[in-house]
Write a structure and sequence with these properties.
heterodimer; A: 4-stranded antiparallel beta sheet; B: mainly beta; 6-stranded mixed beta sheet; 5-stranded antiparallel beta sheet; 11 strands; 0% helix
Chain lengths: 114, 112
């Protein structure tokens, strides 16, 4: 089945550690996105990529980094510079960047900093 | 600067009645609007959308209305069912834009 796979589903991290969240899609979509969800704040865009080897900062990119070496993969690294990393992280893809068709989301990864 | 706003964080409706979820936006350049539904610990799923050239779009029990002059859209669910209990996000995008802007969500609870 086509879809987006995020892993791990739950992750715990000590303060000061970097952590990488995986996102893989087999939908042959060009564009991929990372969102963060916090209570009462909806979904906020961290980074997005319209094509392999290219990505742009979203609204809250500070403390995060990404790479897009393959069309299928868009991993997100939460660095120690991110002040409030505990959140629910969602990866999404769309057929084309700006495609007015819908985004397809993964099931999310919940990161907790201890 | 919240460009897409959902001012009601929660809504409770009886089964069989109509649910109306509201969304306001400030950016007049938005020309396409979408609603997503999200269950706990899952990713959002697309529900219904509307282009700014229309004022209504219907899909089964779900209807979205757009009032461009008021910069307001609403999602009507009728009849509401217990399985509709979820968080609903509205989202908007500008023509030629490459990212969605989401609202803060409304938690809908449909009671028996």
């Amino acid at each position: 089945d086509g879809g987006i796979t995020q892993s791990p589903k739950y992750l715990f991290r000590k303060e000061g550690q970097n952590v990488t969240l995986s996102c893989e899609q087999n939908l042959n979509h060009d564009a991929m996105y990372w969102y963060r969800q916090d209570p009462g704040q909806g979904l906020r865009l961290i980074y997005y990529s319209q094509i392999v080897n290219d990505f742009q900062k979203g609204d809250i990119a500070e403390g995060y980094s990404v790479s897009r070496e393959k069309k299928e993969s868009f991993p997100l690294t939460v660095t120690s510079a991110q002040k409030n990393p505990t959140a629910f992280y969602l990866c999404a893809s769309s057929r084309l960047a700006g495609d007015t068709g819908e985004l397809f989301f993964g099931e999310g990864s919940r990161l907790t900093v201890l | 600067d919240q460009q897409v706003k959902q001012n009601s964080p929660s809504l409770s409706v009886q089964e069989g009645r109509i649910s109306i979820l509201n969304c306001d936006y400030t950016n007049s350049m938005f020309d396409y609007f979408l609603w997503y539904k999200k269950y706990p610990a899952e990713g959002p799923t697309f529900l219904i959308s509307i282009s700014s050239i229309k004022d209504k779009n219907e899909d089964g029990r779900f209807t979205v209305f757009l009032n461009k002059s008021a910069k307001h859209l609403s999602l009507h669910i009728v009849p509401s069912q217990p399985g509709d209990s979820a968080v609903y996000f509205c989202a908007a995008i500008t023509g030629g834009g490459n990212k969605l802007t989401f609202g803060t969500g409304t938690q809908l609870k449909v009671e028996l």
